[in-house]
Amino acid sequence: MNLRIQKIADMINKGVVLADIGTDHAFLPILAIKNKKVQKAYACDIAKGPLEIAKRNIQAENLDGQIETILSDGFEHVPTDVDVVVIAGMGYYTAKDILEAAGKKRLSTCKQLIVEVNRKPELLRKWISDHHYTIDQEELITERDFDYIAISFTTDYHESYRDDEILCGVYLQQKKGKEYLFYCDRQIAFISGVLAKYPHNDDYRKELLQQKKYWLEAK
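Given the sequence above, the corresponding structure tokens read:
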């Protein structure tokens, strides 16, 4: 089991009913059940092929009675007894489309939503902020020289987050930690490289300089 799935499983509230949207091979629901994090789980995917593999993996672990596979486009066929939804391993725009198609009324039935996007987690934080939802956990996962950030949130009301929180993280800045400091250094190095190749004194350069300032302050 890879580190990313383990870390996301650790974020799930204990004793809940889980829906893993975009489950692929059901590794997350299997781990969550085996670790006694959840009572029951739904492994949901839009594609039949991955679901067939998921079924075999579930059967191999003798977890047929606790994990059900569901062919579903986003929340479309997700049962209403679900407490926690995980959307992981996809791009931001795909995850956003799933969340927006569900709508606030459906999302508000969940006690916890965990979303991990492959790139640009700041776009996800901005979406959460624009909807005045509340971020309650963030996890930085560095695996095979790639950074993943999983964000847990609820639909409880929250004031808009600051620009530095949207870019650098809400809880990640508070927790700091060695991994996060290295992560900040990587962001600073990337922005510095872009600035070196982009000498024009325009709005884009000003935006990059502001981002660099936020990352330096986040350390």
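Residues 176-218 form one domain. Try to locate this feature in the token string yourself.
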